[in-house]
Write a structure and sequence with these properties.
Layout lengths: L17 E5 L2 E4 L4 E4 L2 H4 L8 H13 L11 H12 L5 E7 L2 H18 L7 E5 L8 H6 L3 H4 L9 E4 L4 H4 L6 H19 L4 E6 L2 E2 L6 E2 L4 H11 L3 E5 L23 E4 L11 E6 H9 L14 H16 L2 H20 L5 E7 L2 E6 L15 H11 L2 E2 L1 E3 L2 E2 L2 E2 L2 E4 L22
Parallel strand pairs: 3-15, 5-6, 5-7, 7-10, 10-11
Antiparallel strand pairs: 1-2, 2-3, 4-12, 8-9, 11-12, 13-14, 14-19, 16-19, 17-18
The structure holds 4'-deoxy-4'-aminopyridoxal-5'-phosphate.
Organism: Achromobacter agilis
Enzyme class: transferase
GO molecular function, one term: transaminase activity
Length: 437
């Protein structure tokens, strides 16, 4: 069977054809099995073909698949929002459902903007984000992300976003500088950025609690987010936590920001929210933002055709049920500690492994040419892409990440395996070294 008409992202290659998934395994059309070590891109949090999620989806399809949000709400959307709000950080009162991560980021930015317009501060329009960040690929979300390699071809981007330094201790914490001092330095940079842009002109600071796609599970130093929150509060700026990748249990708490002891104004979630069964995302919003819009125009000026799709909500609700029923958050913390230990044992002394980091079942490995100097490889070598290729050849999926971050070549692989196992492998793993796809 030759396939020629799908435009693949990698324009010169056709990837293997996936035909079946079961538990932590994905099978291609030749019958080879691949261990899903990355949940795709941190999506398949309960693995593949989970019977409970499929049953919930079937039941919803039998009842109703689609009802447009300008006419109806659905029971599943309401129940899902209740569940997500009940376990959200203090003050978060509503979920606005969209169809994916980029849409969630764009909706959050528009909600922030509309909020300030409604409360009579229309001059607040600047967005500040971090250079080491990925927030999506639609034009607005791309502008927020700081990955120069992704942005370059599309510059100038339609919205202008100011980028500040990430919290990236492995590379940027200075010799002799404590975590506190490092966090303080970054807080001062944020404060100076707000002041330079002009008092009362910044609407939001956007950050991933654990950086995913641009940097391989980079956690912030303790206290960093509390300091950033304080600076935002002093300047009346909203804090948007982008948890599209790190949220929904992956780091051992439902929302990753819970572990930082701060409450964001808006949280974006997607990926693990639907577990890969249906595209879905959401903006989780603070009550005062929603109330300002309710009391103002009474209408959120944003929408898409598939908002709150009933089958997507049914799948997500089932994912939430399983996470709670099977005690998966505690399991992630325990399994994550084991995974870290095993990675350190296996790779800690490898000459090309600079750093092993992450939280829960969200782990990153930074690849370097020289461990002592932390020098990265020549970009042309893209070690991450080679690691991914060789892993696939051995029947393992790991998520590769490169591109220029903060003027430096990034070379990372990310592990984001399902939060628990179900199902057994039913086909062969072809471990022939060097077998490529
Ligand atoms: N934000 C973050 C933090 C992400 O990791 C991603 C996807 N990798 C997005 C937004 C965009 O999500 P999507 O690909 O579903 O549009």
């Amino acid at each position: 069977m030759s396939h020629t008409h799908v435009l693949h992202r990698s324009l010169r290659q056709t990837p293997p054809v996936a035909v079946r998934g079961q538990g932590v395994w994905v099978y291609d059309s030749t019958g080879r099995a691949y261990l899903d070590g990355s949940g795709g891109a941190a999506v398949s949090c309960l693995g593949h073909n989970h019977p409970d999620i499929q049953a919930a989806m079937h039941a919803q399809i039998d009842a109703l698949s689609y009802a447009h949000t300008s006419f109806f709400t659905t029971e599943v959307a309401e129940r899902l929002a209740d569940r997500l709000v009940a376990d959200a950080p203090a003050g978060i009162s509503h979920a606005y459902f969209v169809s994916g991560g980029s849409e969630a980021v764009e909706a959050a930015l528009k909600m922030a903007r509309q909020y300030f317009v409604e409360i009579g501060q229309p001059e607040r329009r600047h967005i500040v984000a971090r250079r080491q960040s990925y927030h999506g690929n639609t034009l607005g979300a791309l502008a927020v992300g700081g990955n120069a390699w992704r942005r370059a071809q599309f510059a100038p981007l339609l919205i202008e976003v100011e980028h500040v330094s990430p919290c990236y201790a492995y590379r940027d914490q200075r010799d002799g500088e404590s975590a506190e001092q490092y966090g303080e330095r970054l807080a001062q940079e944020l404060e100076q950025t707000f002041e330079r842009l002009g008092p009362g002109t910044v609407m939001a600071f956007v950050a991933e609690p654990v950086v995913g796609a641009t940097a391989g599970a980079v956690t912030a130093v303790p206290g960093y987010f509390r300091r950033m929150r304080e600076v935002c509060d002093r300047h009346g700026v909203l804090l948007i936590a982008d948890e599209v990748m790190c949220g929904m249990g992956r780091t051992g708490t439902l929302y990753a920001i819970e572990q930082e002891g701060v409450t964001p104004d808006l949280i974006t979630i997607a990926k693990g929210l639907g577990g890969g069964y249906q595209p879905i995302g959401a903006v989780m919003a603070q009550r005062r933002i929603v109330e300002a819009m309710q009391q103002g125009s009474g209408f959120f000026q944003h929408g898409h055709t598939y908002l709150g799709h009933a089958v997507a909500c049914a799948a997500s609700l089932a994912v939430q049920d399983v996470i709670r029923r099977d005690g998966l958050l505690a399991r992630v913390r325990e399994q994550g500690a084991g995974l870290r230990e095993r990675l350190e044992r296996a790779l800690g002394g490898h000459p090309q492994v600079g750093d092993i980091r992450g939280r829960g079942l969200f782990m990153g490995i930074e690849l370097v040419q020289d461990r002592a100097t932390r020098q990265t490889f020549d970009p042309a070598l893209s070690l991450h892409a080679r690691v991914k290729r060789e892993a696939m050849a051995r029947g393992l999926m790991v998520y590769p990440m490169g591109g220029t971050i903060d003027g430096r070549q990034g070379d990372h692989v990310l592990l984001a395996p399902p939060l628990h196992h179900h199902g057994r492998r039913t086909g062969p793993i072809d471990r022939t070294p060097g077998r490529r796809h």
